[in-house]
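[Q] Does anyone have a clean structure-token version of this?
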Amino acid sequence: LLLAGHRANDAVARWLAAARHGRPGLAAPRGVYVCASMKEEFGIALLEAMATGLTVVAPDAGGPATYVEDGTTGFLVNTADARSLAGGITAALDLASSPFGDDFAQRAADMVSSTFAIQAMAGTLGGVYTSVAEAQEALNWALSVS
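[A] Here you go.
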């Protein structure tokens, strides 16, 4: 259990990697990342943990429910309920340490890479901007001929 508070990005990256891959004599591999906030609007730290390959426990309210696949890449729980939170942590640890834990970790990392990497987001936004520009062009033409 690590309750670190605010830390620099490079320290957090090293800690996430250590939680995922372990540190001989200090920590076993296949840890989990728990965000016990009452609500997360988006949860960038959760995505960073998933990109590292950690199974996550996240609030079922807010943004994480749009990208955490409950029971596959993490667990969505009612973080206001201690039993629900404890159950999610137990399930995450069981999943991470299972024979298929590495497959689940890779699935989470792949989802983050394919959906939230800068290239993926730029491609998606490019399509949005193109459709908006085309709609505006059509509107401008319609207004000019009326």
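[Q] Thanks! Anything notable?
[A] The radius of gyration is 20 Å.
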